[in-house]
């Protein structure tokens, strides 16, 4: 809104300046209309045809840009470049600077929900993702997804002092390598120098072809990572360099233990995986960035330990923490479990919903409002694919990642999918559009402008004389207020003053 207000101000300024020039230089209306009378029909044909061509080219470019990047080029330029030049103020920054702590937390909450996050249930590249490549010959992960993972690896597994240790220096280059074989070769080279925990991590993730092999490599990584963690823990207060090393070693240790728990879950040792996750959350309670609680919820649902699931939800389903599809839909599943086995839409319509049924329906409403893409995957209206390594909160990718592991848990609860289907179809099936892409205003405007100018060009080509008359009449009507203002100014101002102004 601020940007458009500035545009209107500029337009008004231009109009006032134009009027001032017209007044100062005393451009007579007779000269203007004489110019119009000299224009031939060919001029109007060429003018409308050229306008139609230009607007059509702009429309084609805008549509191509929208299909590729999901936004309007004109809108992006106006917001990103013109708005700062015009002095536009970022509403978010002003709100944050003037808000209370509670408002700031809610702003961070809303921002953090709609962003790209690491998928806490992502698969193993070598043992799981690559199987898809072996069978189909296609890549299961996008370049964008793998690029984000490379950035995560450099953030969590490297630090500024790596150049002091030869093995870590090699791994620092390995995480930046785009070629998988080059990364694996670099990891083997680092292990020839020293027992390097991050080298074992890379091999476990990308070279191991089975979960058992990955688990074996992660156990070797745990032995090396635990030693580095204990040494850096003793030196962390000796300077910023040692503090950075300890932070990196902590991230490495937590990552290894989390992936070991996921290996145990994949190999059927679910109770062992639950214990490992609980111990890890107790040992590092502040490292919530790995979202270990979502791994724990999935494992507890596999054990059908619903009371434990409720206890975890009570801790993490809080207003101050970022929501997720796992949190919202697991809460809905627990509420639905209490009533779904006896739920009947016909009976509910006759007698009304009971308190427990109302709670279940409200929980499903809350979940679907958070991510409306999930029901189609849980109800198997859309086919599942392998989950990505990164997800967009409240987006389709998060729905895929959730349903890939949790569909079996919903099927296990009798009637839960039926209750979800009835609630979703009756309330959200038609109205849920988030995050549907709507055509930007400038594409619609350009399409209308192109159609209008094309129609004018066609009419001008077919009826040049008649359209010339219409054009002259339109311009005369358009400049009639200007002529009226000029006449009034001439009559009001003294002749001597008007003479001096025209001379200036």
UniProtKB/TrEMBL annotation:
Membrane topology, from the record: Multi-pass membrane protein
Membrane spanning stretches: 12-37, 43-66, 439-460
Family to which this protein belongs: Belongs to the ST7 family.
Annotated localization: Membrane
Name this protein carries in UniProt: Suppression of tumorigenicity 7
Superkingdom to which the source organism belongs: Eukaryota
Entry keyword annotation includes Thylakoid: no
CDD domains: ST7
Gene source species: Mandrillus leucophaeus (Drill)
Matching PANTHER family: SUPPRESSION OF TUMORIGENICITY 7 (PTHR12745), SUPPRESSOR OF TUMORIGENICITY 7 PROTEIN (PTHR12745:SF8)
Primary location class: membrane
GO cellular component terms given for this protein: membrane
Assigned keywords, A-Z: Membrane, Transmembrane, Transmembrane helix
